[in-house]
Hints:
Layout: H1 2-26, E1 30-36, E2 45-51, H2 64-71, E3 85-86, H3 90-104, H4 107-110, E4 116-122, E5 128-135, H5 140-151, E6 155-156, E7 158-160, E8 163-165, E9 167-173, E10 186-190
Helix pairs in contact: 3-5
Amino acid sequence: MKTNILLKFAAIVGAVTTAVVALADDHQTYTYRLQTNVTGSIVPITRTLRGPHPFDQAWDSLSEAQKASLRDEYNDLGAEDEPPFPLRGLSVLYEHVFRVYDKKVDKRVAEYATPVEVLISVGPDGKVDAVQFLRGPQESSVRDLVGALIAEVPFKPGKRQGRPVRMDYLVEIDLGMCADQITHETATPRCRG
């Protein structure tokens, strides 16, 4: 009798624990660190990226809850539809942009502190067709460089009813050297000194 009661109690505790872990997973923040070199400096920039989705996983490796979270960012996607996503994961997108950006951009321009909001148009072939800055620096050389770098990153195309289609992907990138804002999939550098 005591054993039976203990087993029922253990089952209830196990069910509650599983529910709490599942709930925590839905609101988890993922962290990814990236170091890049800056021209004229021996001290690398360490950027800490934080967001609600793993940075180092491709679409197929995401959990169903993570895929649903990304899908929910679109108003008109059905349960079987898929948004575009960087082919080898978010980290590839950020690494590609920052490894070149940190070497090429003048430090005074790089101190742009507001996250850049970029709308990326991804074609049915997974290639970036257009990059539109919704918010970002007025400096055209920075826009041109960041836009060209994003355009080189391959994407998994968006899908509707199982067919690849042209779809937009919105991303924020914090280009600032010492900004500390953290929003969505924003790359936030950690300042030194």
